[in-house]
Amino acid sequence: TILFDPSPWPLTGAMGSLLLTSGLAVWFHTSSTTLMKLGLLTLMMTMIQWWRDVIRESTYQGHHTLGVQKNMRYGMILFITSEVFFFLGFFWALYHVSLVPTPELGAEWPPTGIIPLNPMEVPLLNTAVLLASGATITWSHHTMMKGNKKEATHALMITITLGIYFTALQLSEYKETPFTISDSVYGSLFFVATGFHGLHVMIGTTFLLVCMLRLVQSHFT
Fold it and tell me: What is its main location (predicted)?
C-alpha cells in the first residue's frame, strides 16, 4: 500500500460545500448570490485540482496498486452506504407525514389544496431515462474491460447525454409544478428530495464526462 502526500482537497471541498449551502440559504432570504457563487467556484476549483492529482498519481506515477484500488472500493462502499441513509431520511419523513396525515394537512395526502404532478407523465419518463443510463454505463464498462475502446466511448457518451436529458426534464418539471417549496410539508419534501437527487445526477454526469475524456486519452486498460 502506498501512502500519498497529504491532500488539501477534502478540506477545501468541505469548505466549498458549506459556502454553497449557506449561500443557498442567503439567496432564499435576501436574493444575494455572492456567497453561493463563491461556494460554487471553490467546489469547481477543488474538483479540477483533485482530478488532476488523481490522474497524475494513477496514470503517470503508477501509485494505484491493487492495495490502493481495494481501499478505494471500500471507500466507495462506505460512501454509497452514507448516501442510502441520506435519502432514507427523506423517505422516512414522507412515510411519517403521508401514512397518517395530521389535521393541519386536511387529514389527507396530498394535503388539501395541493395538486400533485401526474406520475405517469414526466416522472415516468425520467425513471425510464435513469434506467436506460444504468444500462448504457454497464455496456460501456463491459466493453472497456474487453478492450473495445471505441464502443465503450460511444456507450459512455450516450450515458452522459441521458444524464443531461434527465436534468433538463427535471428543470422543466419544476417550472410546471403548481406548488412551491413553501406549500406545506408536501412541497418541502418534493423539492428537497428531488432537488438533492437531481444534484447527484449532475455531479455524476460531470464525473462521467471526466471519465470519458480519460477514456479517449487511453487512461484505462
Answer: membrane
Cell of 148: 473495445
Residue 123: is it exposed, middle or buried by C-beta count within 10 angstroms (0-12/13-18/19+)?
middle
Q: What is the pLDDT of residue 3?
A: 63
CATH code linked to domain 111-220: 1.20.120.80
pLDDT tens track for 35-82: 999 999 999 999 999 999 999 988 888 888 888 889 889 999 999 999
Q: How far apart are CA 152 and CA 118, in angstroms?
A: 36
What's the CA gap between 78 and 46, in Å, rounded? 22
What cell does 91 get? Answer: 423517505
DSSP per-residue letters across 56-79: IIIIIS----HHHHHHHHHHHHHH
Report in angstroms the alpha-carbon separations of 66 from 2, 3, 50, 73, 134: 10, 13, 21, 11, 26
Class of domain 1-64: mainly alpha
Could you give phi then psi for residue 10, rounded to 5 degrees? -60, -40
- What sign has the CA pseudo-torsion 47, 80, 75, 153? negative
